[in-house]
Design goal:
- By secondary structure, the chain is an all-alpha fold.
- The protein has one domain.
- Helix content is 75%, strand content 0%.
- Helix 1 crosses helix 4.
- The protein is elongated and about 75 Å long.
- It starts with a helix and ends in an 8-residue tail after the last helix.
Length: 202
């Protein structure tokens, strides 16, 4: 009960303070909106990749069964790898857009009962304490593997496979996009707590 009272009191206290956004705050909000727009475009592109992935997957299934009957190889290792490359692209490039749309799975017991300011404060705490450290950890831990993959121009070990180094590059890139989206969400949530009374909708 004490934690809930504290969580409710902090945003209300911040809102009652003689808070004035600095002169550069509108520019910061424009940057946040620009980040939203970039991740929105990348996310919409990744959503279309799902359709392409399904088409390639369907062709691989058909080719595997129809090819022997026709006496031709209708599938290949490159087509099979394209399918899981597209899956990786969809997952990695769509993560920031999913966060922007508030689409990630949450174990939400209390937040649905809170007001917009309490939700914004909880979001800010989660972004700073959980999202940013995790993304930085993933970028640092994957950087060496990505650098080595580019150094040797890593290829698939399967005959006719695809290069691996462009795909591995997307791993740190996707977490950089998540960090940018986290920064944009921090700005929007702070604006919700100290400025507008309405929760930002993506």
């Amino acid at each position: 009960m004490g934690f809930r009272r504290m969580l409710k009191a902090i945003p209300s206290t911040m809102a009652r303070l003689p808070w004035r956004f600095p002169p550069w705050w509108p520019r910061l909000k424009r940057w946040a909106n620009a980040i939203d727009q970039v991740n929105f475009c990348i996310g919409r592109l990744s959503s279309w990749l799902v359709l392409l992935m399904l088409m390639v997957g369907a062709w691989n299934v058909i080719g595997r069964h129809l090819g022997p009957l026709l006496g031709h190889n209708l599938s290949s290792n490159s087509l099979i790898e394209i399918q899981w490359y597209l899956f990786s692209l969809t997952f990695l490039l769509g993560a920031a857009w999913t966060m922007q749309r508030n689409g990630h799975v949450r174990v939400d017991v209390l937040q649905s009962r809170w007001g917009a300011r309490q939700q914004a404060l909880a979001n800010m705490i989660g972004i700073v304490l959980l999202l940013f450290p995790f993304c930085l950890l993933m970028i640092v831990s994957s950087w060496g593997a990505v650098h080595f993959s580019w150094h040797i121009l890593e290829q698939s070990p399967d005959p006719g496979g695809l290069p691996r180094y462009p795909l591995k590059t997307l791993l740190p890139l996707s977490f950089m996009l998540l960090i940018l989206q986290g920064i944009a969400d921090l700005i929007h949530n702070l604006d919700t707590i100290c400025g507008s009374r309405k929760k930002r909708r993506p």
